[in-house]
Amino acid sequence: MNKAVLVGLLFLYPLAVYFGLQFSEPALIAALFIGVLIARYWLTKGSKVNLAHIKIVTISGLALLSFATFANSELALKFYPVVISSCFLVVFAYSLYKPPSFVEVIASKFETIDEYGKHYTRIVTKVWCVFFIINGLIATATIYHRDPLVWLTYNGFISYVLMGILMAVEFIIRKLKKAKNKSNEMAD
What we know:
85% helix, 9 helices, mainly alpha, 2 domains
């Protein structure tokens, strides 16, 4: 199984939980995703990805899913998106405390980052921190909604759309700022 398939399975987690709970016990679904997390971790181990960040997400996810398995807990399964959002919040916020910012690390893989770029990526990292706080709060609220379809809709669709919108808006702003800086340099 390759990394793309495993990442795809993790994105489908809300669908698997929603439909899986209609046909099986929470423990079985949790055990399946424990296997997915372990496989993804081992496949990522040889890559250039920062393993410290992957470890935080993997260990947190494994702890929650292990609890869900042994307790046969539907509630624990539904907390997975909250835990993942919280892990990303910790990783992004910690990178503000101990630079370089997480967004700078990602951006530096694709381009050279100057001082202005470092400042900009810190701002973007802060925006992502706010997003993860709001996303985690909404994801938590959906857990307790009477209709499980609300949990599925937010965690399996809306949150991904919101992440995509945030990435797209940031990309557009970054390109506009680069174009403006380039035209200012030419005018000088």
